[in-house]
Amino acid sequence: MSCVGTGSTISGAGRYLKEVGGGAVQVTGADPTSSVYSGGDGRPYFTEAAGHFRHAETVEDPWPQSYHQDVVDRILPVEDREAITTIRRLAREQGLLVGGSSGTALSAALRVGAEAGPEAVVVVVLPDSGRQYLSKYFDDTWLLRLGFLDGDATHARVADAAPTDEHAPPLPYLHTRSTVGDALASLRAGRDGGAPPVFPAGPCPVGPRRRPTAPELTGSVSLEELETAVRDGKAAPADPIAGRLGAPLPHFGYGEPAAAALAELTERGLDTAVVLRDGYAMALIDRAALRAVTE
């Protein structure tokens, strides 16, 4: 068992073990779910030093020549939350401080071990230390902000003010290649449907099964500012919105205290934010919605 990054470890060690193992060795790769190695679309993920990221606008995507796919018998995809939960458990129960790619590999190894027979021997490579991730995977504040922790359910949370489960409606989101005219139509339709008059924007392909991740929230588009730009002749309906983007909207994890999120938005003089769950943008939220669950 090994995660796949450049592919050199799993290819080299795997080929040698197969040569000397007399056909008894199976090589299994572990990979972040969205990595292209395991069939994902390459969107950003949070378990570093594993997998293969592919930008949405990439045309050619050569894989590392050090990765020999013929050596690997199968690849198991592992969600970020599972990998992170596994390394935190490993630190807590076994005193081993390892990083995200180790969590990916160990999560897959636990699955293989559960399905293997009693005579099987499962060997897993844990390739990275957790020392460089103390302010990430081992920091509750970082994890809570990205939506990897549930928070305290005995108090009002951000999730209580916005739907964040798998059945939540698609997040209002604009691709940076959208035109001003299309953006105005989407923003007006959203406003009429009760959505805040500002949408996040970025390079994420827009679709019902493709929610943006936190790194893909690269800007925002305001209905008021866009209408003003068109009225003043500074923008035309056929122009791309890439040149009209505002700052990215703030984001909160779904498990964060609603009162703290409301206080932060108020202090920053902002009204709208994005709600994250497991690093994915799930919904928009405003101060009125947060106030409704805290009062």
TrEMBL record:
Region (Disordered): 192-216
InterPro entries found in the cross-reference section: Cys_Synth/Cystath_Beta-Synth, TrpB-like_PALP, TrpB-like_PALP_sf
Origin: domain of life: Bacteria
Gene Ontology process terms (BP): alpha-amino acid metabolic process
Pfam families found in the cross-reference section: PALP
Domain Tryptophan synthase beta chain-like PALP: 3-128
Keywords: Pyridoxal phosphate
Compositionally biased region (Pro residues): 197-206
Xref: Gene3D superfamilies: 3.40.50.1100
Reported cofactor(s): pyridoxal 5'-phosphate
Full protein name: Tryptophan synthase beta chain-like PALP domain-containing protein
Species the sequence originates in: Streptomyces netropsis
